[in-house]
Amino acid sequence: MAAKQNKVIITCAVTGSIHTPSMSPHLPITADEVAQQAIDAAEAGASILHLHARNPDGSPTPDPKAFMEFLPRIKQNSDAVVNITTGGGHGMSLEERLAAAVAASPEMTSLNMGSMNFGLFPILDKMKDFQHEWEPKFLENSRDFIFRNTFKDIEYVLKELGEGHGVKFEYECYDVGHLYNLAHFLDRGLVKPPLFVQTIFGILGGIGADPENLMFMKRTADKLFGDQYNWSVLAAGRHQMNFTTMAAINGGNVRVGLEDSLFIGKGKMAKSNAEQVAKIRRIIEELSLEVASPTEAREMLALKGGDMVNF
Question: Among the four 13, 101, 240, 262, which has the fewest Cβ within 10 Å?
């Protein structure tokens, strides 16, 4: 079973690299928007903030300078744990994907646990009008794209960030095989418990958003990691709140945010990340569970502390 925990960690993924500006007027693009929405999400109850950066036209960027435009402001106005992406965006090299994390030396980064197809192109069947020329091309390119995370790539990230910067990881597992990949690195001693295992549902190319799959992933993780891990769940789009609620009921942690879903309810767009955080917090507390503070999340995940970062 996963490590026993008395409180639920809420992660908020603020902007990501999946959704494009034309999909929602509320998606944070500028450094000011990312910073303010992150700070507001922390005030609403998120103890971990998962962060990407964007260019002025809303396209994803790995440039450390873009991250540094909002990271210090978030740190100055929040005690939340900063978790920087190493997934980046479609078409980025591994070195580009790691550049911001290497520069910032955060407490946490994401780490994807296997190569996979990552299909965004079905969105083109639903949308025809875009603000920027890059948006439809970006979505179409995912039809012939492999999100690369080889064993060698993962080893490099573990050495560069884990050994080199004392970073702990949000191990992103989009399918059952990714759990076994993580177990492989645990067996080799290249990853150290407590593990923060983020099981992900509903991405085209990964495991589907089926409640039976959620419990199967949980049972598999229990078998592989015992009490050496903390379990968390995110689900794409309309499955977000249903699956995070199931996770909380079953002793897990949760992730919400506009990276994962643009909606707050059926047919109703979320106006901010904080709105989603407030909703899942309300659900958690109505289940007679407690939300973890940033200090408690740091203790649960054995993080190095907010005073050990480079921003």
Answer: 262
